[in-house]
Amino acid sequence: MKIEQLRRLVAIVKSGSFEACARQTYVEREELTDSMMQLETELGVKIFENHEDEAILTSFGLDIYRQAKDICRRLDLLEGVSKEKNEKQLLVSNMYCTIANEAFVQIYEKYHEDGLIIKMEEGFLPETIAQVASGQSEIGVVVLFSDSENVSLKLLEEKDLEFNHIVKRRLYAIVGPENPLYNKDCSWINLADLKDYPYIANYASPSDYAWERALGGRNHRRAEIQVNDLGCALQLIDRTDAVMIDTLDDKAYRTFHAENRCRFILIKDAPLTCRVGWIKLKNRTLSPVCQEYIRLLTEKAQNCEGNILV
Predict the structure, then answer these.
(1) Short-list 206, 90, 84, CA closest to 145
(2) Does 163 have pLDDT greater than 60?
């Protein structure tokens, strides 16, 4: 049995007849017929009801066709991977970190004329971990929140991944014009100041939040809003009294999301921090393009407002 026979079987069934397949593949009809008869002889069963023009599969032939189609698909994927290995590429997973997006765009601007293959996947921490651990992404940009950092690091260790710290950042309450805190004359607030407002569960972290525990749980006036899209979260902040806790990404929020009239107020409670960094498989050697991306990401992260000097 040869792979070419399987490819021809798939092509014949897809085209609907031997004659149509011959025209589409530029292979003589007689050659297609001989190839399928040889395959039937090797397998010891009939694949087609007959070898006339219409391609009608036997019940056994249908099973063979399905397996042949799957084998051909897998071989095509392997051939595609082999081809991509010879091309410049950057495959990144990102836990909704806007500075990671900015660095990604700059890399593309620099290398797009060189045929750079580029892909950015955004998702929660478990999704980012899974993509990097499986090799779908070369690295993942992650944000580890102080209340759940130990759990997150344990997940990384279980998947044989390493966390590379870039910067530690303060957390802010993000409010809009409908929230009374918006017009309050203050440069910082405490967690207790947030206790009466609905909150948006942080789209970047599946955490139960130290700040929620510090408030002694929810009361009847609080509501939880779960979204995983930053644009939607900012619209909610703009139009309601809901509050979200996140880092201050300076230009990313203030220019890209300028139409959202959000205000960032520093949360003074000491435990509320997060760490920005990137993850990779421990034994994986990073490509030159990826190393350049990390340098650019690090530079952007360290120049952001709200960093903590450690």
Answers:
(1) 206
(2) yes
The label of the residue with tokens 């921490």 reads 125
Rounded-to-integer distance, Cα 148 and Cα 150, Å:
6
DSSP category for residue 155:
H
Separation of alpha carbons 264 and 244, rounded Å: 10
Residue 104's pLDDT band (boundaries 50, 70, 90)? very high
How do residues 274-308 score in pLDDT, each as one tens digit? 889 999 999 889 999 999 999 999 998 888 877 77
Question: Cα–Cα distance between 54 and 97 in angstroms, integer?
Answer: 56
| HSE-up (13 A, CA, CB side) for residue 302 | 10
Q: What is the pLDDT of residue 140?
A: 96
Cα gap 294→139, rounded to integer Å: 9
DSSP β-bridge partners for residue 174: 244, 264
- Helix/strand/coil for 89: strand
Q: What Å distances lie between residue 52 and 19, 26, 38, 56, 272, CA to CA?
A: 9, 18, 16, 9, 74
